[in-house]
Amino acid sequence: MHKHVIIGFAAALAVTGAAVAAEKTMNLSRKAKSGVDSLLAYSSRWDRDCKESPLKITFTRQPANGTAWSVEADEVIPVSTPASGSTGKCAGKTIKSKKIVYRSAPGFRGSDTISYDSEGAGTIIHTTISVTVQ
Question: Which of 108, 107, 105, 102 is nearest to 130 (CA)?
Fold first, then answer.
């Protein structure tokens, strides 16, 4: 069973005169089975009213021994996330998010790495996922 993580952030940054995106860096580790689609993470943003905000995923490093992609999915906001901590009153609400999926080359076993940026609601999160393929 894979551990699923929502990387969410529920804030917008306002700067006098110009909007500047806040940036965060996340490093995650996951396990995947060789040659099988594996859900690695969810990424989402929401506002103070628990409504989803637009989100763009850009892969900055594709895995050397497979492929990674994102797809839109409904997801329940957890009680807390690695990126923003407590989700407060939004916990338990369902929003649109992006799930990050990985599939290794058939028969590959070993380590692989995926990097992507998720941008939305005034925040860019640079995420690197180390994948152990079994």
Answer: 102
Q: Please state, in angstroms and rounded to a whole number, the distance separating the CA atoms of residues 58 and 116.
A: 5
pTM of the model: 0.82
Q: Are 126 and 27 in contact (CB under 8 A)?
A: no
And the tokens for 99? 């799930």
Token pair belonging to 52: 């989803």
DSSP assignments along 70-131, one per residue? EEEEEEE--SEETTTEE-GGGTT-EEEEEEEEEEEPTT--EEEEEEEEEEETTEEEEEEEEE
42-91 pLDDT tens trace: 999 999 999 999 999 999 999 999 999 999 999 999 999 877 789 999 99
